[in-house]
From TrEMBL:
Pfam families listed in its UniProt record: TP_methylase
Species name: Haloarcula salina
Assembly behavior: Homodimer.
Transmembrane regions listed in the UniProt entry: none
Protein name: Diphthine synthase
UniProt: S-adenosyl-L-methionine binding residues: 9, 85, 88, 113-114, 168, 209, 234
Keywords: Methyltransferase, S-adenosyl-L-methionine, Transferase
């Protein structure tokens, strides 16, 4: 049995009771933290809270060499953990398909997703979000500014009056917990990049979703680029047209200018 468990958004307490129970009942527990991170905790604390030993795998250890996970799951109870909700990344879907193709039973224990948290915190209606996109660091995509694919996604969503959730890049090749200052793209850096292709455009920052002190801020991208939003993780939403209730929510909860 291979059980995929989403650990939630922030720290060692974000996992559901069902996820915690699955982890504690497992013979072996694997995890990856390169697609996202639990920035409110560290590996030692996570293992202590969940009363287990977690075998952290890097990108190559999941995508190129999943054999240790699959072999263990063939005859034992194995859990594979990710931050947020599992199956959001194609990496996780691929691992599940590999298990199914080998006759290994799989199941999923969900965690909170960044997209649903962004909708809840901002008051933007969940069914009005279009395709999401990821904004990479400039040196990660070999060019300057915003990749054409990111611009196209936002433009297509706005043409249909849909909101765009913009995930912000994480610099990580191997899982580790000693982060440099530029490990995480910040919302002000993202707003600065996006303000060039989208001048005079409303943006909404969501910082530390799932933590005790989340922050939501709405303003033009140019203005957001001049502010700081504290510790990671950050997200940025570029809204489409706003329903009156969404306008009221952004004014009340995110400090959006009335105009």
């Amino acid at each position: 049995m291979l059980t995929f468990v989403g650990l939630g958004l922030y720290d060692d307490r974000s996992v559901t009771v069902a996820g915690r129970d699955a982890i504690r009942d497992a013979d072996r527990v694997f995890a990856e933290f390169y697609t996202s991170r639990l920035v409110g905790t560290d590996l030692e604390t996570l293992e202590s809270t969940l009363d287990t030993t977690i075998e952290v795998r890097d990108r190559a250890g999941i995508e190129q060499d999943p054999e240790p996970i699959l072999s263990a799951a063939a005859d034992r109870n194995v859990v594979f953990c990710t931050a947020g909700d599992t199956m959001v990344s194609t990496t996780h879907a691929d691992l599940r398909l590999r298990a199914e193709n080998r006759g290994i039973e799989t199941r999923i224990v969900h965690g909170t997703t960044a997209q649903t948290a962004a909708g809840s915190l901002t008051g933007l209606q969940n069914y009005r979000f279009g395709k999401a996109t990821t904004l990479p660091f400039e040196d990660a995509h070999g060019g300057d500014g915003v990749p054409d694919s990111v611009v196209a996604t936002i433009e297509d969503n706005r043409d249909r009056d849909l909101h765009t959730l913009v995930y912000l890049d994480i610099k990580v090749d191997d899982p580790h917990w000693d982060d440099s200052d530029d490990t995480y793209m910040t919302a002000d850096a993202a707003a600065s990049l996006l303000s060039e292709p989208f001048p005079d455009t409303l943006g909404v920052v969501v910082a530390r979703a799932g933590s005790p002190d989340p922050l939501v801020a709405a303003d033009t991208l140019e203005d957001l680029a001049t502010r700081t939003f504290g510790d990671p993780l950050h997200l940025l939403v570029v809204p489409g047209s706003l329903h009156p209730l969404e306008r009221d929510a952004l004014t009340a909860f995110a400090g959006a200018p009335i105009e």
